[in-house]
Amino acid sequence: MGARGHPHFHFLLSLGVLVCLKVAAGSLPLASPSRLPLQKKNFELGQPVPVSPEFEGYDNEGKPIYWDPRPRVVPLGRGRYAFKWFGRKGRELTLIYERPDAVDVIVEASVATSTPRSISYLYKVRVMDTSGVPLIGFVVQTFSPKVKPVTNSTTFAGKMAGFIREFSDGNWIRFAPFGGRNELPPGRQADFALVSPDLPGLVACRVHGGSFMVEGVGEEPPTALENLYLGHDAWPHGYTIGPDERLAKMSLAARLKYLVERLPQMLQLGWIENQKVMQWYGTNLKAGKVA
Amino acid sequence: MPYNDISLPWGGKFDGNAHNWTGGHSEHKVGRNCDVNVCESPWNQTRKDSLAQHFYDTGAHNPYLNECPDPAKHTWHVTW
């Protein structure tokens, strides 16, 4: 059976049409889609809240031992900070912290069917020149248990733990540059790919940047500084396409409804040029004109 | 691969050896820190990179590596 004979071909085609805007739309003028950088919440990173003097334990006589690290933060610009504290031997120590959200990224996705039951998802992840730090990971949401990331000597792929709130819905795959410095600097692009039998739906994605690992200074940083590490909710967030097993179980009408409901979001994301184009899609999809 | 100085899930030191909660690692008391030693593993760049990647997959922030002249004393300090 060729791709056109595949029962889901028309739906796959219709979503591809919406995402790529490459349909011959009669007299409707279409421009190239304008993808937006992933969005940020811009959490503030201020000075550490003193936890000091930190309780270290008890001496042999049962007296409490305290340690006052006197932590402070010195902003270095472009998402980098010097975390400073006084170590247990009284020496001032410094580690460089890089915000995970100081990376500006545009994600461009495409799908291709190599066989009727194998859909390839390709993600072009571009780190914009405006980024203050390199990219160290790209995470894409799927709603499919049958996902096979494509890895090689320069690409790592793993599964994000579902107990993390931001990655609890679906099956999130994390891709990362691997080897060398394990990072993708500003101005560079990486291609990540996965294969799944499931159809493309609208899914979320996140990226994180900064130092792949922190070079230690002999002592571990105090709690007051570790409390400043930004969480996963700070990772830049956006939408793309990814495999969704739920689509195969839907009727054609339900799939069209799925698309129509997401048109405003696609407009907001810049995947659809303007309100007029969105209305054109809405009218045609509601009328069942999908190919 | 040894994991040590892990803090209790809701905070506090894991004092399995009944040392009356003495000793260092005061930062290991908020329920999200652990040290990972590499002394029983062959130490090479690929293994190091792979381990750090898996830390991220499980939700770690800023994997912090103290490397020593003696590879048997390399230690990760990981914050989740």
The secondary-structure element order of chain A is HEEEEEEEEEEEEEEHEHH
Got a strand count of chain A? 15
Whole-number tally of structural domains of chain A: 3
State the end-to-end CA separation of chain B.
18 Å
Strand percentage of chain B: 15-25%
Domains of chain B, number: 1
Determine the most extensive contact between two protein chains. Answer: A-B, 45 and 32 residues
Low-confidence stretches of chain A: 1-14, 16-27
Oligomeric state = heterodimer
**CATH architecture heading of the largest domain in chain A:** Sandwich
| First-to-last CA distance of chain A | 19 Å
Mean pLDDT of chain B, nearest integer? 75
Task: Based on Cα principal axes, name the global outline of chain A.
Answer: elongated
Largest sheet, strands/sense/barrel of chain A: 5 strands, antiparallel
Q: Total strand count of chain B, please?
A: 4
Specify Rg of chain B, calculated over alpha carbons.
13 Å
- CATH fold name of the largest domain in chain A, please? Immunoglobulin-like
**Residue-averaged pLDDT of chain A:** 87
Which regions of chain B have little confidence, pLDDT < 50, spanning 5+ residues? none
> The biggest beta sheet of chain B, please?
4 strands, antiparallel
Strand order of the largest sheet of chain B: 1-2-4-3
Question: Can you put this structure into words, describing what you see?
Answer:
The complex is a heterodimer of chains A (291) and B (80). With 291 residues, chain A is of the alpha+beta class. Chain A has helices at residues 9-20, 223-226, 252-269, 275-286, and strands spanning 54-58, 64-67, 72-77, 80-86, 92-98, 105-115, 118-127, 135-142, 148-149, 155-159, 171-177, 189-196, 200-209, 214-215, 237-243. Chain A has 3 domains: 1-33 and 250-291, no CATH class; 35-42 and 102-247, Immunoglobulin-like (Sandwich), CATH 2.60.40; 54-98, no CATH class. Chain A has a 5-stranded antiparallel beta sheet with strand order 10-11-8-13-15. A 4-stranded antiparallel beta sheet of chain A has the order 6-7-12-9, with no helix packed on it. Chain A starts with 8 loop residues before the first helix and ends in a 5-residue tail after the last helix. Chain B is α+β, with helices and mostly antiparallel strands and 80 residues long. Chain B has one helix at 45-57; strands at 3-4, 33-37, 61-66, 75-79. Chain B has a 4-stranded antiparallel beta sheet, with helices on one face. Chain B starts with a strand and ends with a strand. The chains are: A alpha+beta (291), B alpha+beta (80).
